[in-house]
Description:
The chain has 343 residues and is α/β, with parallel strands linked by helices.
Amino acid sequence: YEIKECDWSSDVCSFRSDMARNPFRMRWRLYMTAALLFSSTTVAQTYPNRPVRLVLGYPPGGGIDVSARILAPRLSDFFGQQFVVDNRPGASGNIGADIVARATPDGYTLLMMTLSHAVGAGLYKNLPFHPADSFAGVSLTGATTLVLLGHPGSPAKTLKELIALAKVKPGQLSFGSSGVGGSPHLAGELLKLQAGIDIVHAPYKGTGLALSDLIGGHIPLLMSALPGAAPHIRSGRARALGVSTARRAKSMPDVPTISEGGVPGYDVNHWFGALAPAKTDRKILDQLHAALVKIMRANEVVVALDKAGTDVATQSPREFDTYLRSEIARWSKVIREAGITTQ
């Protein structure tokens, strides 16, 4: 810029005079500002240009796995890039969560998680990540109910009968779950608190193994997500004693709620969601959310999720961030009241 005349009382002229005095500095600032704006826009416009990994901290067969495998191929079709389900089970989902927390925040590594992720914040004191601060919300992806299952040969045919039996035999009955700190475990502990019973937790490495032992008669009770348990309930290999939500499940309207069955006010909503690493570009988060909303509104997806026992539910990235923090607070309180600790 070349300024030959200038009225120094003019704000505009003063600005131009600064550029004239420092042409290289001002050009550098303009170039950097333009580059940042261009970079952000370009990232959003070209995303995704390679496969995206959907990390699950659980083995195949559970509710979140069923849901993810319904959504993944449709996300692939929507974006024209492959979305791959990657099961990384262990430590109640924390192994998978840690992988995503450490990943580059570019939208190519996402975490498909459940209520168990929020539970872990109050249960584990030395996590290598923060369940909320280390992630950015993409969307709620569904909600289902947990179900308390009994072996068909058990003398307790209803939840009321089970509660009566447990009070006669304190500490002698056990309930299985997919692992310590998972939402089925915490739902069982909440049941114990509200029903005033003493049943022993038997943790497993995944829902599939626990279901096998229930069906085989090795454990009398199991708290499980409904999607994975539904086929066994329908076949008669497991008896549904009650669902965890305040309302009956649409896919199994004949099964009473735990609240109806003798524990008034009991209500646990087992939700699923998608998270990205913290600092992921907001435009990418919005793109993913918009895609999920459109996909989950499709009739074929609604039907598929309904058959799996999952209701369609979405939240914006910011709404999901807020919801996650509220669930962390709720379950941290339950953990304290139940005196649950981990080694």
